[in-house]
Amino acid sequence: MDVAAANLAKLYNVLDRAELEYPQGPSHGSSIEYDNLSRSWTDLLGGLPPIDGYRVVVPLPDIDDIGRHWADYFDFDIPHELYEKLETPRKQVEEYKYRLARARATAIADRLNHLVAAVDTSLRVISGGNSTAESEHYATVENGVAELDRLVGDAIERRGRWSDLRRHLRFGQDHDWDDIATLDWPTVRADVLAALDTTDRPLPIPPVDLGTLASSKPAGGVTTQLAWQSINEEQFERILFEVLSKLPRHQNVQWLTRTNAPDRGRDLSVERLIEDGTGSVRTERVIVQAKHWQSKSVSLSDIANNLAAVDLWQPRVHVLVVATSGRFTTDAVSWVEKRNYEGTQPRVELWPENKLESLLASRPALIATYRLRPIVR
After folding, report:
1. What is the pLDDT of residue 222?
2. Contact, 233 vs 260, CB < 8 A?
């Protein structure tokens, strides 16, 4: 993809120079410069591999033909066909650029997610002053940022503080790491997440006329249970991320560790805003632990192990949410209810599949995106 992007940049350069040679009035013949640009254009087209079958195929226009058109229509409006000949090369190149950016984003999505989560976690450790593992986490941030820089290439618009981030990493003093965590990385992180945004991509749908379908007055009930078995662990965590991002009074949702990390108690973090009725608002830190378990229920010991890990966290965790696509054992539910009644901190919330289905009921687009209700053809 890097080679295709390099060839595309060369193609843009040829096109920019060729457009300067286009006749602006009646003329005859061509020029050596333009003929050489046309040959270069044809050579470069061979360096752009097809993307889902799409290729740039149009040659540069024949400027002798364009000049004669100008002569034929000098006293009249220039016909649409002439403008079409002049504009088609750039239109096809722009289409190819768009498709290349999409293909790149699809190819690197999983790796970007992993790197963002790793940098998030390591910066949190460094900011917390955990000296026992700092050298490892410094390296994770430095290598992670370098790889992110390499992966995204020119697929996104870099609006964040990329140059500041590189400079602070180069100097590496304590104040530089403070700036990285509080100023640089949040803006770079937003740029990277933009490369993962798929909200404007169409979902697959069978060929059907919805008007005809509605006129047929389909009968019967609709499915309510979601097909959790059709998704994997990473997709389950992504669904939770998107649900949390849209919940009222929840903000700053972050990935904390990669899927299948040894510590399964730190998947997502979110800040919950609590209003006390007097106009005052306080913030609770919530850790969401994702368990995409279909073959067994979440037990009391599973929750206790997660709590043991969360108790060591700084800053303080106020709420542990255990979210599962399955269910909880009876003793786990009873133990959590008793613990919360006694006011033990952190508070524990259990989100079984029926709660998740309730949260997703008002988000049909999310259900469709992950095909939790497969389309019946």
Report:
1. 61
2. yes
